[in-house]
Amino acid sequence: MDKFNLDDIFSDPIFDELIAETPKKQVKRIDPEFEKFQEIIEWIKNNGGEEPKKSRDMTERKLFSRLKGYRERPEMIQKLAKIDEFNLLNIQNTILDESKENPKSLDDILNDNKLFEKKDKVDSLLDLSRYKRTINAADKYSTRKRASHFERYEPLFKLVQKEIANGTRKIIPVDTEKNIKPGKFYIDNGILLYVLSVGKYYEDKHGYRNAKLHLIYENGTENKEILLRSFASNLFDKNRHGRMVTEVMSDVMGETTVEERTDEFVTTGYIYVVRSLSSNPEISKYKNLYKIGFAGRSIEKRIANAENEATYLYAPVKIVATWKVQNFSGRKLEKAIHHRFEDKQVQISVPTANGKIENPKEWYLISLDEIESSINDIVVKLNS
């Protein structure tokens, strides 16, 4: 084989081919707006030629909002015209959701999907979509506050937890928002809650049935402002693991209520007997004059303002006897006691600061021994 020197190699035509620069392959870049618009076209093709609507389906709702945004921007209509095979951006076309009503609340603003629709590279820097769930959650719970008189509802939660544990109640997936009614229990984000009340139903601006709810939470908070549809969206949110708690059959049949059954497990209050320390001779002349009342919690707090209340004859009082009420309704026991001593009741009239006359009840002319004996007798019969 002949040997080649460097000059032979460099002058060889094959060498020129080896060192020739390979032309770079041009990569055709697709405008992202074309891709997003093509999503709308594909959706229409897959849905019988119908445009996306403002439905509860998040994909359809997103495409609806995107198409609406394109139709409102002349530069996008011009840009996408060449791939608009369904003539969706024709200015003569019906504009989706023509309502231009100004938002009336933060809920209205956050429910406008245009807030979360990217429009260009600058807008994408302010893209809030990743925080949408957090924003909505913060708005829904912004009115949750410490529940007033939570002691009234705490026994309900204790009872329901006990009934869940013994199998009387079940925790099941949420079926439909139509079953969100007063007296029912749900679990939202791991917290047991009680639907205390549902306000008057109305049709919102989107055509959906809505209402204001009053919810009591097991952690001692309440929300009086949350809307039915907002609450329902929480329960159906997979990330919040919403659940509903089944009802007790006797409650469903109207034979019992959860409030009545709660009385069987907790202290419901206190029956108390007090003696008046009034300096009014028309009152102090009675040696066996007693008031029999009921207090849901502290008796001391109940009588702390006695000097300013007609029911205590506008005078301080002294506690002489108390009974803790358990296993039945304290209010019912109080009513039974008052009925027993009906013939012992004293009609008392006391003047108020503005000159009016008050006639406080629940004062009885009777010995303390007879009161104690009768109340103990009533309690025994109620427990039998």
UniProtKB/TrEMBL annotation:
Where on the tree of life does the source sit, at the highest rank? Bacteria
User: Per its UniProt record, what InterPro entries does this chain match?
Assistant: Phage_T5_Orf172_DNA-bd
Q: Which residues form the Bacteriophage T5 Orf172 DNA-binding domain?
A: 284-378
Protein name, per record: T5orf172 domain-containing protein
Origin species, per record, is Trichococcus ilyis
